[in-house]
């Protein structure tokens, strides 16, 4: 499956099932995942890269999508991918930009407008990639992409599994994206026990970044 | 405690810079063996002048690509409550004193610093209590900070997508 890496979220798109015969005469089903990873400026970028660090090479090729106002994440991602390419010879990735749906502390009314704009922008991209799995870890840009993926599911085109990982900075309260995606994600991961208590449908794996 | 590193990350925190470079604070640091004080002032307006004395040096800078070297060199880190700064410092295994910026009381960033303090990984004060904290703090009470485990996430995700 091609891996779709979105800054501010992760997309995983489906790929081909290719049965292969092993020496032991049994069949292996091959999944090559296309995932989209969302990352953010500053600490959130570091977080998503750590989340990705232990994923197998089945999650490849990766398509990263940036918020267009994000200046710092591209360098971090390229550096991460370069190291990865040193370990895995077939490592592949691409980079795309979409308009940022909301700046920090942006007003509500203008946020709705910019989010709608981001959805209009991200829907064609999501449609093109048809993710199987979306992985997000924070604010802004992941919401329009997840909404696009949900629309694709409603239209019967592609059903994505949405996995949201709340930032390690969030100990007692969720981010705005987290509050929204708690209801729309399939798996909602928190990194502190207090959040697990407040949001019982969440998954707690301890600290994962 | 020879080398002390003060960081405000990408923010501006003039009150901390002023407090930590004030004569009482410098006296307190020097009485604990500090010979080098490095101030990373970020976007702050207050820029103390660097100093070179026989037993004491003050260095000042705004930003660097990476603070890893400064963190490694430090025997004590005094930091704003930013998550990145806190986590990077703890991962280097350095004693950390977090100074709360009371102008940012609503900032959710405080959640992490508070939790780290509750768990015994960092010391915690504000600008007005900085000097007395520097005088009385016991760094040996700090607990080491174990690294996060992204491999647990990988295992979880593998199950979710059907790789086992």
From TrEMBL, chain A:
Quaternary assembly: Forms with ALG13 the active heterodimeric UDP-N-acetylglucosamine transferase complex.
Organism: Anser brachyrhynchus (Pink-footed goose)
Protein name: UDP-N-acetylglucosamine transferase subunit ALG14
Gene Ontology biological process terms in this record: dolichol-linked oligosaccharide biosynthetic process
Any GO CC annotation of this UniProt entry: UDP-N-acetylglucosamine transferase complex
Membrane topology, record value: Single-pass membrane protein
Sequence similarity: Belongs to the ALG14 family.
Location in or out of the cell: Endoplasmic reticulum membrane
Main location: endoplasmic reticulum
Entry keywords, A to Z: Endoplasmic reticulum, Membrane, Transmembrane, Transmembrane helix
From TrEMBL, chain B:
Enzyme Commission number(s) of this protein: 2.4.1.141
Name of one Pfam family that matches: Glyco_tran_28_C
Broad EC category: transferase
Protein location: Endoplasmic reticulum
Coiled coil: none
Residue intervals of the Glycosyl transferase family 28 C-terminal domain: 4-147
Broad class of where this protein is predominantly found: endoplasmic reticulum
Keyword set, alphabetical order: Endoplasmic reticulum, Glycosyltransferase, Transferase
GO CC terms, sorted: endoplasmic reticulum
Any GO molecular function: N-acetylglucosaminyldiphosphodolichol N-acetylglucosaminyltransferase activity
GO BP term (any one): dolichol-linked oligosaccharide biosynthetic process
Gene3D superfamilies per record: Glycogen Phosphorylase B (3.40.50.2000)
The family this protein is said to belong to: Belongs to the glycosyltransferase 28 family.
Name under which the protein is recorded: UDP-N-acetylglucosamine transferase subunit ALG13
């Amino acid at each position: 499956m091609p891996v779709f890496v979105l800054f501010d979220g992760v997309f995983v798109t489906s790929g081909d099932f290719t049965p292969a015969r092993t020496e032991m005469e049994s069949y292996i089903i091959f999944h090559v995942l296309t995932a989209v990873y969302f990352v953010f400026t500053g600490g959130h970028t570091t977080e998503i890269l750590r989340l990705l660090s232990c994923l197998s090479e089945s999650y490849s090729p990766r398509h990263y999508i940036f918020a267009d106002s994000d200046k710092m994440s591209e360098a971090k991602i390229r550096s991460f991918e370069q190291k990865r390419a040193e370990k895995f010879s077939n490592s592949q990735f691409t980079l795309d930009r979409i308009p940022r749906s909301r700046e920090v502390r942006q007003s509500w009314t203008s946020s709705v407008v910019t989010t709608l704009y981001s959805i209009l922008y991200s829907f064609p991209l999501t449609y093109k990639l048809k993710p199987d799995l979306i992985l997000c870890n924070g604010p802004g840009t992941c919401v329009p992409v997840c909404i696009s993926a949900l629309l694709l599911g409603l239209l019967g085109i592609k059903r994505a599994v949405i996995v949201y990982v709340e930032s390690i900075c969030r100990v007692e309260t969720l981010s705005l994206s987290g509050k929204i995606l708690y209801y729309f994600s399939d798996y909602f991961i928190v990194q502190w026990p207090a959040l697990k208590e407040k949001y019982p449908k969440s998954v707690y794996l301890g600290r994962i970044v | 405690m020879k080398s002390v590193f003060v960081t405000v990350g990408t923010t501006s925190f003039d009150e901390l810079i002023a407090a930590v470079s004030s004569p009482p604070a410098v006296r307190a640091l020097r009485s604990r063996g500090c010979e080098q004080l490095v101030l990373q002032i970020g976007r702050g307006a207050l820029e103390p002048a660097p100093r070179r004395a026989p037993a004491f040096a003050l260095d000042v800078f705004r930003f660097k690509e990476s603070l890893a070297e400064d963190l490694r060199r430090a025997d004590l880190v005094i930091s704003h409550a930013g998550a990145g700064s806190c986590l990077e410092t703890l991962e280097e295994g350095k004693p950390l004193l977090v100074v709360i910026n009371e102008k940012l009381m609503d900032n959710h960033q405080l959640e992490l610093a508070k939790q780290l303090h509750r768990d015994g990984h960092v010391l915690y004060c504000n600008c007005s209590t900085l000097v007395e904290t520097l005088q009385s703090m016991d760094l040996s009470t700090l607990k080491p900070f174990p690294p996060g485990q992204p491999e647990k996430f990988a295992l979880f995700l593998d199950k979710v997508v059907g790789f086992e």
